Amino acid sequence: MTNETSTPTDIFSRRESEARSYCRSFPTRFARAKGSELWDDQGRRYIDFLAGCSSLNYGHNDPDMQAALVEHIQADGITHGLDMFTDTKAKFLQAVEDIILKPRDMDYKVMMTGPTGTNAVEAAMKLARKITGRRNIIAFTNGFHGMTMGALSCTGNSGKRAGAGTPLCGTTHMPFEGAFGDDVDSLSLIEQMLDNSSSGVDAPAAFIIEPVQGEGGLNAASTEFMQGVARLAQKHGALLIADDIQAGCGRTGTFFSFEEMGIEPDLIPMAKSFSGMGLPFAALLLKPELDIWKPAEHNGTFRGNTHAFVTARVALEKFWKDDTFQKELAEKAVLLTSGLQSVAEAVPGAKLKGRGLMQGVDVGSGELAGDICARCFEKGLIIETSGADDEVVKVLAPLTTSSELMQEGLGILLEATIEATQSSKMAAE
Amino acid sequence: MTNETSTPTDIFSRRESEARSYCRSFPTRFARAKGSELWDDQGRRYIDFLAGCSSLNYGHNDPDMQAALVEHIQADGITHGLDMFTDTKAKFLQAVEDIILKPRDMDYKVMMTGPTGTNAVEAAMKLARKITGRRNIIAFTNGFHGMTMGALSCTGNSGKRAGAGTPLCGTTHMPFEGAFGDDVDSLSLIEQMLDNSSSGVDAPAAFIIEPVQGEGGLNAASTEFMQGVARLAQKHGALLIADDIQAGCGRTGTFFSFEEMGIEPDLIPMAKSFSGMGLPFAALLLKPELDIWKPAEHNGTFRGNTHAFVTARVALEKFWKDDTFQKELAEKAVLLTSGLQSVAEAVPGAKLKGRGLMQGVDVGSGELAGDICARCFEKGLIIETSGADDEVVKVLAPLTTSSELMQEGLGILLEATIEATQSSKMAAE
Amino acid sequence: MTNETSTPTDIFSRRESEARSYCRSFPTRFARAKGSELWDDQGRRYIDFLAGCSSLNYGHNDPDMQAALVEHIQADGITHGLDMFTDTKAKFLQAVEDIILKPRDMDYKVMMTGPTGTNAVEAAMKLARKITGRRNIIAFTNGFHGMTMGALSCTGNSGKRAGAGTPLCGTTHMPFEGAFGDDVDSLSLIEQMLDNSSSGVDAPAAFIIEPVQGEGGLNAASTEFMQGVARLAQKHGALLIADDIQAGCGRTGTFFSFEEMGIEPDLIPMAKSFSGMGLPFAALLLKPELDIWKPAEHNGTFRGNTHAFVTARVALEKFWKDDTFQKELAEKAVLLTSGLQSVAEAVPGAKLKGRGLMQGVDVGSGELAGDICARCFEKGLIIETSGADDEVVKVLAPLTTSSELMQEGLGILLEATIEATQSSKMAAE
Amino acid sequence: MTNETSTPTDIFSRRESEARSYCRSFPTRFARAKGSELWDDQGRRYIDFLAGCSSLNYGHNDPDMQAALVEHIQADGITHGLDMFTDTKAKFLQAVEDIILKPRDMDYKVMMTGPTGTNAVEAAMKLARKITGRRNIIAFTNGFHGMTMGALSCTGNSGKRAGAGTPLCGTTHMPFEGAFGDDVDSLSLIEQMLDNSSSGVDAPAAFIIEPVQGEGGLNAASTEFMQGVARLAQKHGALLIADDIQAGCGRTGTFFSFEEMGIEPDLIPMAKSFSGMGLPFAALLLKPELDIWKPAEHNGTFRGNTHAFVTARVALEKFWKDDTFQKELAEKAVLLTSGLQSVAEAVPGAKLKGRGLMQGVDVGSGELAGDICARCFEKGLIIETSGADDEVVKVLAPLTTSSELMQEGLGILLEATIEATQSSKMAAE
Question: Which of residues 66-105 of D touch B (CB under 8 A)?
Fold first, then answer.
């Protein structure tokens, strides 16, 4: 820890709840950020391979978003407007329609939920249950969908579930693709459970799935698996909720993580990078025929963050109007894969996880992964772990990271991995 | 409706979910806002007696907050930092300590929850259950605490509860003060239920109460009632959660709505005006000895909105450093009471509700109240209803509203009330 | 304790679960029973004022029931027939129709549930929820309906509820008549809670109520209260479940405890004395139009105990064919009231509870009541307590108890009460 | 249907709930039964291959049990004694200790639950949750454990679950051995789900399993599977509940169905044939160290059916004092297997299910199985189906059935099967 944060009378120790977490891995005070770099209050520079857990896909403080937001503020644009109509919201919705939906031949409405991913997930769960008259929602092993009581019931992590202080209800957890190893066909198991009228698994209101599981260890579902889940949902009268909160907004190489998979989710919770600039913002995309909400049936004070409408619109216009950005992502993904292969080779038994700009290395143990990340931080790289046992070192760099910075960061990661692996071997001997 | 919003091909009709609601009462596009006034895209001016449902206690676009936020943005200050340490957060916490806690002799820690009131409530519920090992949370008739599955189970409104699409669990709803008329002592009933070991009401983990029920009809608990609830909580080993999301931040005349009541809530969810400027932001204040959270046991991507740290700090420094603002609030409350008395006199059987700058008039029917608000809108005043049957016309003007504007708004309200009452009488005849 | 039961190697200590309870109050081995008397294996005689908690309304081993049952057995009559048609069942149903339903102008069908009261209650709860599509069942303070998960959720006793080891769900507990003292109108409170659409009390599937609460302290609902509950149920689209398991079969002076109240419950769980002889047997009476069960939708191996069909039929034919028995009950109730008044007078502050042959004395404390019962046992009378704090000494003598035996038992009770009260005074001094 | 039951004014149509079921398959009135035969009121004889769903393992009206019961009744023995001590209960417990526990080197206590299997299961669930402080109970596909709310949540059948009218909670359903075909190792899947701390499957309070699934289709778990479940339970701190309600009391060839498997279940619900004669009776065997029940923490009026104590003791003494009966069972099982093989050969694709005297034939469709059973009834054989789709023709003849009767019954079954199969083929052509 730096001097600033280590004294017992420190303002954070005194006044911020013990629930705080990332600050424990990165014990310094950050003061400034631009693109893929952060600086702490001592002026020390860090490369950011965490990017707000994929909330900063376009990097910190994109100048165009900054400019638009400052202009909006200085013009006394609406800051908070509940869910009233504003020009700002109209322009955002128009951008969603023109830039995201039409080119992809998608027809969805946008529900402004409370500005958190968990709130969009809760809205999706409520709607699926209302529509089907069923309660059971099928979630997947290692899935993460949020921390409020509904979304938490879909989340797999036992520590987070225990935080509820009371049993969670109304969901069935099924194996994600590959959860039982390569030899076991998860989809077939799920289908057999649902087809058996005496399985004890109640007819589902919905399936909720992350096409790439971010917190769960960068498990990337194949097209076959996603299509299979979509087929099962349809067969059993359930909705398909594709939670693209972490994997969406270009993270896997396309705007939606599933858009090349030939499926049409019924409900798509979006958050994290959807605002473009890291502002709190979430929404639920829903097929128009499912929009049976009564006015305010799900509401919330901060639904429709107007500042976020401004930056989200700029993000869409700047990065998604044509395929330039998407092509760059493909190139960067190759770079990342290549760099991570070197990292994986440095750890016996390690293997690559994820896809696109959402990749990492499973180093086999949470202890080693934690040591690697700690050494990275010492060397000026911010990077975190994921997975049930924190065993995956996960790269979530801004999608806008330059090749040079990407290489620099990967170099630090490789160095830290080699050191940590050697240290681990020595400790074992 | 204006031309912009009435066409079937309108972007909002096409792309925004039917869950939208306030836009239905105020069918125009808002473009600009300052202080207590909004302007739509046709340049039409509206006085704001809604204030983002008490999220804009300091008015729209306070110039000092604007300036500080713009400066922060232009200096590449952190926009999104998960829950890492930042100078911005340190300054905010210091301001909370110096300006809010110390002068009130309060000792609380701040938990940065997801930036919605409902998320802070969920965190409070989880913590109370973890601490006590019990599940039952006692909520009150007409209470409103949010729309995610946990908070919704504490919310009274049957329409909102039905939105869950599945039964809600784990709470017991008890009568708020006066719920059964003046002759029945709600507190005594609750005490008898809890004292009877065969009542079927399980030992509570917590009581959750709004000192003034905002959505429930501006029901203001007396000091005696709040002290009684605090005593019952202590007697039965339960925590006291004072939900000050709508009534806090000066709305009732003091920073906390309960601060002159001689009680010390264990947990205090804050949101709405806590950011100062209407930015999404929420927090849970908790007594230090209750801070048993493990790191990230309740987390969320947008916990700790850095932009909100900036504006929230300015709000505390500008309005709460001394008692000037609080004294002004007392004067304005008198003005408001006086104006609303005139309104009440215009409606047979009407009565005043609420306290401080959170007052309204129960006009006896939701139909009449709705007509009054619709007429106000036509006349350039934005105002809404609350209550189980929407029977209360509720004034939630910015606390910074000048006397002149307050008078102007109250004048419109009186005019609309007289017209609506007459129209109602004529319809009845 | 007798020698037989006090040794550590005793078969009961070794092999019967600690869940056993009545044997703790009456620590001897019973060997024989007839009418209202029991004898232990030492030949000691006891008067029975417990009667299997109202399961032996016609006394032990009624000779006509014995004879019919022995004849059935010796003729190789069906002992166990699942729910197949038998002559025995036909005769039982015919007796129910002819002797119970027709004379009372009641039209009900009989559902053979598992042979326990709790099973009949579970069937009623399931059916009410199926019919209404709602989950919430309104139960009452101090109610007791059984110990399986569904029925237990309707039961008030906190110790029994805690036995579930997990939170109970799906019920709302409302105050029984007089629960808050004579000044508070429970019915009005319930009505206000249900009429308030923001009370947080979900629309009920059913009300479940014991017309006289047996375990809860012999609280007898008035006709007005029962009619009020019936009216509320109808008003809110809920079913009325009158749990007559303990109070039925003549215990209050009429076959059904509510039959002179002018109400028509939708569902009537019956058990305890319904078999006549104390054999395990239960049934759910249901209005024909509510009989939407699919075959075996609620089933159970022992539904329709054929031995019980035999004895139940004899009981109906012997005691209920005309009004002779009912008239005797009225006379005995006067005798009982008179005797208990003397008992009550012996204890300062004591008061009578209950009605008909289901009366007792609230002596103010469970300790005193327990002492009285223990002294009764020493003197040859078996009698137990009830109430939330076991504060009521409860007389549940067989309805067939002769005046002489009743007087003898009441005499013992008076004597024990005087002694216990004096002992209690001396201890206090 | 016979004349007696087909008229609309029939007493059963008028007065017995539509929930009745077996009477629909066997539409006649039964009047008398002895051993493995029943006679209806027209004097028609039926061979009983259903035996009260394994409640009549010792046949109808065993003469020794009849005699003992008649003697008990005529001597004014206790009929109903709540859970007081009686000589009758002592003798029963002594027989359990001497004849069942000691020879098998088992140490269990007996909890007298309500006299239904579902009640014993509820008691087991409650105790497991109390002991572990956890809620999740792992049940298996195709499992059947009862119809009250707790037991029903462990039951797989969707029709029966739907009967609850409300979602069921607190259980996780895992695949039984072979549920996903021979290639998938169910045990390994379960272990992986439990070992993965992010699977979303909460730590279990207990596993509940039928060693042979009676209602679920005569699925017999192997020793390896049962040992695996026992090992998983121990590894994860959960109790093992072996539900031997249908498979126990000699049905599989030994007293307990699992006694040759080298496992020691923590809790063993018993019912059905435990009373010997088909009287309502159930109990929970529990390891002494788990007997943490407080007095009456789980209770019920009819716990400890005294008549059943009498017949149950006779059954133990008559059939289990030495290994004669068990040896006979082994021989009869061979006979049964052989007969069913002939049946299976008559149906293309059919296969044998179950073990011991609990075997049947999976004929591939519920329609065919139903037709076979209907034809059997016409020919004087009572036999039923089981399985998720009622696709298994199930033989549950009394264990005491003579070889001649067994052959006769199997002959009818073969004949009916051949006819039904041909009829099915003709219909298909």
Answer: none
How many other CB atoms sit within 10 Å of the CB of residue C427?
A: 9
Over the stretch A347-360, which tens digit does the pLDDT of each residue have?
999 999 999 999 99
Could you report the per-residue pLDDT of A257-273, keeping only the tens digit for each?
A: 999 999 999 999 999 99
**B158 and B86 within one domain:** yes
What does the pLDDT look like over D97-122, one tens digit per residue?
999 999 999 999 999 999 999 999 99
Cβ contact, residue pair C179, B159, below 8 Å: no
D17: closest CA of chain C, how far (Å):
5
Q: Please report the number of interchain residue pairs, chain B to chain C, with beta-carbon separation below 8 angstroms.
A: 116
B100 located within any domain:
yes
- Residue A172's SS3 state is strand
Q: Do A279 and A333 fall within a single domain?
A: no
Residues in chain C within 8 Å Cβ distance of A130: none
Q: Does A167 touch chain C (CB under 8 A)?
A: yes
B12, B166, B170 member nearest A135 (Cβ) = B166
Give chain B's mean pLDDT. Answer: 96
Return the CATH number at A223. Answer: 3.40.640.10
Q: Do A248 and A220 fall within a single domain?
A: yes
- Report yes or no: D3 at the C interface, CB cutoff 8 Å: no
Look at the alpha carbons of B51, B57, B62, B66 in this order and tell me if their dihedral is positive or negative.
negative
Q: Is residue B3, in this structure, part of any structural domain at all?
A: no
Domain that holds residue B403: 10-62+324-428
ipTM rounded to 2 decimals? 0.96
State the nearest Cα–Cα gap between D389 and chain C, in angstroms.
15
Distance CA A248, CA A242 (A): 10
Query: Which residue, C319, C349, C384, sits at the end of a domain?
Result: C319
Write down which residue in C297, C319, C341 finishes a domain. C319
| pLDDT, tens only, D150-168 | 999 999 999 999 999 999 9
CATH number at residue B33: 3.90.1150.10
Chain B residues closer than 8 Å to A32 by CB: 75-78
* Per-residue pLDDT at D5 exceeds 70: no
DSSP-H helix ranges across C220-365: 223-235, 306-319, 324-345
Query: How many domains in chain B?
Result: 2
Tell whether the model's pLDDT for residue B9 goes beyond 80: no
Question: CA-CA distance, C206 to C131, in Å (whole number)?
Answer: 10
Inter-chain contact C175–B193, Cβ cutoff 8 Å?
A: yes
Mean of the per-residue pLDDT values for chain A? Answer: 96
SS3 of residue D240 by DSSP = strand
Q: Do the Cβ atoms of C61 and D83 come within 8 Å?
A: no
**Chain A residues with CB-CB distance to B299 below 8 A:** 19, 21, 147, 160
- CA B368 to CA B13: how far, in whole Å? 28
- pLDDT band at A155, cuts 50/70/90? very high
Contact C199 B141 (CB under 8 A): yes
Q: Which contiguous run of DSSP H or E holds residue B91?
A: helix B87-95
In chain C, what residues touch A167 (CB-CB under 8 Å)?
A: 166-167
pLDDT of residue B1: 36
Instruction: Give dist(CA D410, CA D395) in Å, integer.
Output: 9
What pLDDT does C373 receive?
A: 98
- The answer to whether residue D289 sits within a structural domain is yes
State the average pLDDT over residues B409-417: 98
**Pairing of the two strands A212-213 and A137-140:** unpaired
